[in-house]
Write a structure and sequence with these properties.
about 15% strand, eight-stranded parallel sheet, alpha/beta, about 40% helix, TIM Barrel, homodimer
Chain lengths: ~325, ~325
């Protein structure tokens, strides 16, 4: 638990910037490495300390993550925690050869999505978590292993997902050695009742150990779902600057929940995030300039914070 | 209470379409009367039964509401309940001469906004509610009187607003004879904690009597705030098709919370709205065609409902 709570303190709300990974997954205009560094530095200056930087995948097929090895030391030098996806054995090997702080494994809530997304059964995906945890333990015990459960609130291939199944997978991932688990509304099917209910059960499972909620705003429920998650024990929320990260099935759709709006939400609920909204404007200007034509969203950015004092609880 | 619960049944969630009033307040392209009728009819066909149709104001200065007298019988003929703003004595007189089902009076939570918006003190605004209620009682006892409290969560002129003041105003409006009160986050300052807290207190004040929550999505909290309101006793939610109704201070900003998204939210929370999302698409097509260049928003409309079954709780 010590390595975990050093990075994700119990009780405190942590916002993870996933725009450099999830936000670039489908981007048309890719930012240069230099722009990514500047964007990262600007967010660190605004108080953000947790970044998902990319995915350990072959650069030939995933040019958006080709500079991951350069971003990891840049993130560490800036004093922030870095994470990156490790979707197979090679990804784990690559991660262990870097200073990345967190290996992010993905497990699907449904067999169909697991096969379609990773060409692996759910059991094999959990075995990969076990492998990541064992290798890490042996070779880099300071790193975290994160297991994210995709399609946890419904699956575009299989339809409904039983919360019992998600809980069982989360328990299996923790038993396999994951330090932290997350649940993702990958296709934006959930409303706040479903999110609150699953988070309450996950909170009971994890005890004082923080867990992650990863939301997409596909149907406008993103902020409401984040509120329900925070009310039911989630203490780590993924989001991306400007809601970067469209969905291939919904042109113009926002991707992840908007980082700036989640800062506003968290602060309005009384959770000090340590993040400066004005500072995020500077980061956004860099990202927007580096990704012309990409959809940047978010109401707080457009309207600015309220003029009253009490909005920050 | 009988006339009230006939229109706003206790316990059941009612969504009020305010787009034909609040959505046109600042619109650039005004729909024709024919288009408004078609829009209204399409929403009635989709299951919407509550409409705010306009404001009783001089047509010379408010051309967007010049056809209010034609829309009221059209709404009644379609089998739906009509409401319209009565912001002064003349407005009350005009309303009583029509078949409108509900007179909507506005009271500001702060003295500064009351004077700026209505050239009337808060006490005078409450006195106007009393006059509307008394005239109604004498001349048209079937109509409802609604008192909406603007700037209930913070004021762009005065800053913070004490919930005690809002509660006192709500109590004064009910004592003055209003059937139903509402609280409005006119400038989108609130987060869900503030909305939940005020609604819980309003719920205690109103008892079984329904009350209204009126939200603007200025800072992206609209849906989260609606969720908090529904969880804390609000049973009537204002919204506008496509989030019509921009803010003069925030170009491109959505106005009211998006009707379609609120239907999704309410259904996902287990409240049957009786409203068909597919039917709303037809209504939206009419409104969009009638108001070229106007900003129509909403994620549910873009993405469509989820493909799983369990999203509707």
């Amino acid at each position: 638990m010590n390595r975990l709570t050093r990075i994700y303190p119990e009780g405190r709300v942590t916002l993870r910037e996933v725009g450099l990974r999830d936000g670039l997954q489908l981007a048309k205009a890719l930012p240069s490495t230099e722009a990514k560094r500047a964007w990262l530095a600007a967010e660190v200056a605004a108080g953000v300390r947790h970044f998902e930087l990319g995915s350990f995948l072959p650069a030939a097929h995933f040019p958006q993550f080709a500079d991951l090895d350069e971003l990891i030391p840049a993130c560490a030098a800036a004093g922030a925690h870095s994470a990156a996806l490790t979707l197979n054995e090679r990804g784990i090997e690559s991660a262990l050869a870097t200073d990345v702080g967190e290996l992010v494994c993905v497990v699907s809530a449904t067999e169909a999505h697991s096969e379609a997304n990773m060409r692996r059964s759910r059991a094999a995906a959990v075995a990969l978590v076990a492998r990541a945890a064992a290798e890490r333990e042996a070779r880099a015990p300071g790193k975290l292993v994160n297991a994210g459960i995709a399609m946890a609130f419904g699956c575009s291939l299989s339809g409904d997902v039983a919360q019992d199944d998600v809980l069982a997978l989360a328990e299996a991932c923790l038993a396999a050695g994951a330090d932290i688990v997350g649940v993702a509304d990958t296709v934006g099917y959930a409303g706040p009742a479903a999110v609150g209910a699953l988070c309450a059960r996950l909170s009971a499972l994890c005890g004082p150990r923080p867990f992650i909620i990863h939301l997409h705003d596909t149907r406008g429920m993103g902020v409401a779902n984040a509120a329900a998650a925070l009310e039911n024990g989630a203490r780590v929320v993924d989001a991306s600057l400007g809601g970067l990260g469209g969905c291939p099935f919904a042109p113009g759709a926002t991707g992840n929940v908007v980082f700036e709006d989640i800062v506003f939400l968290a602060e309005s609920l009384g959770h000090a995030t340590g993040i400066d909204l004005e500072g995020l404007r500077a980061a956004r200007a860099i990202a927007e300039a580096a990704m012309p034509g990409e959809g940047f969203h978010g109401a707080l950015h457009r309207a600015g914070p309220p003029a009253n004092a009490a909005w920050r609880a």
